[in-house]
Amino acid sequence: MIANLKQSIGQYRSFMDYRYQAYKTELTQLLLQLKNFGLLFLVVLGSAMLGMILLLFLGLGKIIDSSDAPQYGAQMAWLYLLLQSVMLSAMKSAIKNTAQRAFQQTLVKRYWLGFMDIKLLLLSNGWLIASLIIAIDLSVSQWLRVPHFWLFLLLQFVLGILCLYKPIALVYGFLLSAIWATLPLDVSSLLYHSGFVLLFALSTLMVPFNATAKLKLNSLTGFWLLFFMHNSWALIWRGALLLCVFMASKVLLQERADLAAIFSILSLAFVVLFSSSLQFDCRHLYQQYSVFFNMQNKQTAFFVSLFIPSLIVLLLALVGFVVLFNQANCLLLVIGVIWCLLQQALAQKKPAHYALVWMVITGVLLSFY
Question: How do residues 276-307 score in pLDDT, each as one tens digit?
């Protein structure tokens, strides 16, 4: 019996080493894909990393100390959980080792797979790690004053598991919880977070809705709807990051209202960036499906339609931009539209110049304010 136990432990350690190596390999490949953004990724996101970390902890502070504004704290918690889910979705393949998943199931017990998934999930969840760092620093009396933070930590862990095994529940849960967090109610932070727990629990029981079966591929509208239903990640991460930009701008405006002009330029720059970068996802479709639409005499219309998704995202983002800064600066809005069209053209024809032009225009606009 002892020999069998030692053998099982040895097998588990070998399996754990294999999964960890596979995890590191897939993360390396993911980082190589990010290098496709080149100068944009290294300069813009790299230089903003410290600010992003500071905003991360600032957001946590707003969530914990939300007794004076519980709804605002709940909205920050919702955004925090959304961004965590987006990040984990990007790493899901590495965490689960999806490429060799079927092969692993023939080698080890099912619960071994689940146990390793959870271990790698905890290792990958920087958002939960940041929360735990804050939690460890809290005293007992502080814990008693913020009981909702217990539920927030629970949500972070559970939503990570849902991200791995039942992502559709996350979609339903975030939609329901967004409604809950925006209702004009006067309730405590504990009740808001209890509502989040209940709504995400209910979302696991909801039946997935298959809308793709009702769509036809013989029209451009049907084609794009099907494409984004099967590639929803392209919209989800952009939407989440735009929400992050708007929430960060809102917090910064509360602290430094005198810098509203600068914040508006930076927000517009990221709106253009996340909107126009969708062109990278659309551009390869022209060669892939041009023959199909040429047979239907829709090749020109199909080419024009490649630019529509980015413009729709831009329009929706500009609505949020106007609401955030409580003003409709027509000049800035026009600049944003023209800028987005320029970035789309670069993404389509000169992708190597995309990041450089974006940074130059951002710098020029900032120099005028």
Answer: 988 888 887 877 777 777 777 777 888 888 88
pTM comes to: 0.78
**Within-domain flag for 249:** yes
Domain for residue 205, yes or no?
A: no
Number of domains in the chain: 1
75 contacts 181 by C-beta, under 8 angstroms: yes
Tens digits of residue pLDDT in 89-135: 888 888 888 878 777 777 777 777 888 889 999 999 988 998 998 88
H helix intervals, the chain: 2-34, 39, 46-47, 49-64, 70-96, 101-105, 110-124, 126-137, 140-145, 148-165, 167-182, 189-203, 220-230, 233-255, 260-276, 278-295, 299-305, 308-325, 330-349, 354-367
The single-letter code of the amino acid at 103 is: F
**Contact call for residues 249 and 320 (beta carbons, < 8 A):** no
Is 362 part of any domain?
yes
Evaluate whether residue 208 is within a structural domain: no
**Residue 299 domain boundaries:** 213-369
Residues constituting the chain = 369
Over the range 116-132, which residues count as b (16 or more CB within 10 Å of their CB) and which as e? bbeebbeebbebbebbe
